[in-house]
Amino acid sequence: MDNSHETTGAKTKRETDAFTSSEGYTSTETDEYGSSEDSSDDEFTSDRKDKTTLIESEFLLNGTNQAVKIEIWISSRAWRDDITAKCTHKGKAIGHAFARFIYRGMVTKNFWEKMDECSQDVGEIAWRVFDRYGFLKDKFKSHPVHRGTGVWRSELDNGPLLLIEKVFITDVECRRKGVGGAMVRQLLAVGEKCGASAKPRDMSPGLIALEFGSVTQFQKLTRAHAIVIPGWLTEDVEPQYVGKSKRQKNEIDLQASNTAVSFYRSLGFRRIGSSPCFAYAFHPNHRARSIIPDRDFDPQIEPLDDREDEPGMGDYIIPYGVEIQLGQRTLSTLQTEFPLHYAATTLPDLECVEYLKKVATEDGVNLTMVDRTHRTLLHTLARKLKPKSITWLLANVDAAESWKTARDINGDSPLDVLKDFLEDIRTKRNLFMGNLHVSDDFQGFSPPAVECLSLLDIDRMGEDLGLSTSRLKYGCTCGQCIEGFLSSRMKLALLDQAGTIYDFLSDGVDDGRYWVSDNKFWFRYVAYDVQQNFKTNKSIRQGYTNIFSRVRDCLESSIAPSVENILQVVRQWSEWPPVTRNYLTRAGDLSGVKAVLACIFNEARNRDDRTGDGEFQIMYASEYSSLSDCRNDREFKFVARACGLDLELE
Q: Which segments carry the region annotation Disordered (predicted)?
């Protein structure tokens, strides 16, 4: 990889449509990068036709008058452009690079899955710094340490992404001569052009505001950024390992990493928080442009030593109740160097309490000792979900209360460590070649996890115990979720759809044939035989319609619209004739209510800006922005299941 800090100027540039390219290039793109069209692209409706565009430019090698040519092929797909750069000198290939320009707005509904489809490298970027809907993770925006320099904020939530996967200089003699820098600059130029071409230039400010809510929102949705995880070639460093100790090998790797990071910083990339990802802002006035390379953030690293790799040291994302067996060497080292952390890692919770009681009375035992990563005993107990041990520690060790705010080498408090682990469990399972997204299967955290959260979360002090426990169990971050899982923004979305659909169904309810013909979409989850009754029975039509109003009653009373709660409201409602009861008698209490909830939840999701067309946020822009943000705002399937809806959402 080239890490030159010098700038080279392009001498010539031309663009041509190249639906067929040279035989040599075609082989490189197909064999090395696997850029054949994904079968899943068919599900997207787009007027972007598959085509390949060729861009050529020339520059001079640093310190020479030798011309080098860069050819860039842009292969358009339904929701991305695959960009390949090939650098040649006197007809000989000396380097290549590969990037993808992602039209994020088209894939936010399944962001992680779509990024995984691109490649393992792209998937790694997505999982590391973005959430399931393509938002920058909150920890990189607001955490006192993980925010890094703080220059990257919500602007990374929206807009296209240029993700740089590979930059190789294959000719060793051409390294350190500006080749890598020139290719990356060309990729950035292409990315900026792709971003500009995605904007509807023929729309007036008024039309833009009508379509996107405001000109400001339009700018957020169309402003691109580039992201990369700096890397290096293993084959370049492996020859240096010969005869070296483990510490020396680690130093070689660290030097290679620092060289790669310096290369991208020289081109204007700056670290995203404390992550290994670096971003580039195309906007000339972005905050990141004011950070000089030497002032960019670098996280602390664990001290290098000569210990060999020990299996089982990492945190694996596993189901509750299952633990990875640590390697014997790992356990032996941990037991020798940090016996308290060893006990906290290996002993069951109650046995760990007895162990702590015993060692607390022994001379020479230092309960305040931290491990190699500066983790206190409280960090380890929190990560291992041991509430009884945490309770004993906080009650019997004077310094333990202060450990709640102690930070390890990564900048994490015990609560941070616990929350990160629980978020991983909520969202993913580690597979051999990547991650499996499991957010929609979430049913709440385990009792030990909830108890640990309640012991460590200082901000929850003074809350109603029952409500606080529910909010901790279901991952509420706003402190306002109804029954622990229904956030204010989700409530507004469901209210909107319950009221809207009720109004649709109320119109023309007297005319059975017209009503059935005009409203089939709104009762598609109702059993077929009941749908047939809609044609001739006004009482059942009106009863079905009224259930939407009962859902609205629940929400307006700050009651979660669960099947049980809705049926309770129906029973308490004075109604004559009893049309709602007639509908439920015909359809069945559970099936009849679930058909309504399925319609409401699906439509709410279809109107959301990350999972649908965004009409909801445009219509309620002011009210929506005034409500507290919550982790559960867009968890439609999770909230639907919590309300008793076991039907699969569309």
A: 1-47
Domain shared by 365 and 277, yes or no: no
Instruction: Answer whether 251's CB lies under 8 Å from 189's CB.
Output: no
What pLDDT was estimated at residue 314? 41
Let me know whether 139 and 227 are in one domain. Answer: yes
DSSP E strands in 512-603: the ranges are none
Structure tokens at 438: 């499991």
Q: Which two tokens stand for residue 608?
A: 């959301």
Strand partners, 210: none
* CB neighbour list of residue 403: distance below 8 Å, 6 or more residues apart: 376, 377, 378, 379, 414
pLDDT at 163 over 80: yes
C-alpha distance across the termini of the chain, in Å: 45
Share of the chain above pLDDT 90, in %: 67
CB burial class (10 A; 0-12, 13-18, 19+) of residue 510?
A: exposed
Q: Mark whether 220 and 161 lie in a shared domain.
A: yes
For residue 272, what are the domain limits? 13-295
Q: Is residue 647 part of a domain?
A: no
**Domain end point (choices 295, 325, 347):** 295
pLDDT digits (tens, 9 = 90+) for 590-627: 999 999 999 999 999 999 999 999 999 999 999 999 99
> Is a pLDDT exceeding 50 seen at residue 324?
no
d(CA 375, CA 313): 14
Residue 478 in any domain: the answer is no
Q: And the tokens for 177?
A: 């001569």
Domain end position, chosen among 473, 504, 525: 473
Grouping H, G, I as helix, E, B as strand and the rest as coil, residue 519 is coil
Q: Please give the tally of structural domains in the chain.
A: 3
Nearest residue to 390 (alpha-carbon basis) of 352, 340, 446, 338: 352
Instruction: Please check whether residue 340 is in contact with residue 377, taking contact to mean a CB–CB distance below 8 angstroms.
Output: yes
Whether the per-residue pLDDT at 110 is higher than 70: the answer is: yes
Q: Residue 2: which residues within 8 A CB-CB, separation 6 or more?
A: 95, 167, 169, 175, 176, 177, 178, 179, 180, 181, 183, 263
**Sorting pLDDT into bands at 50, 70 and 90, what band is 38?**
very low
Residue 215 lies in a domain: yes
On whether both 113 and 195 belong to a single domain, the answer is yes
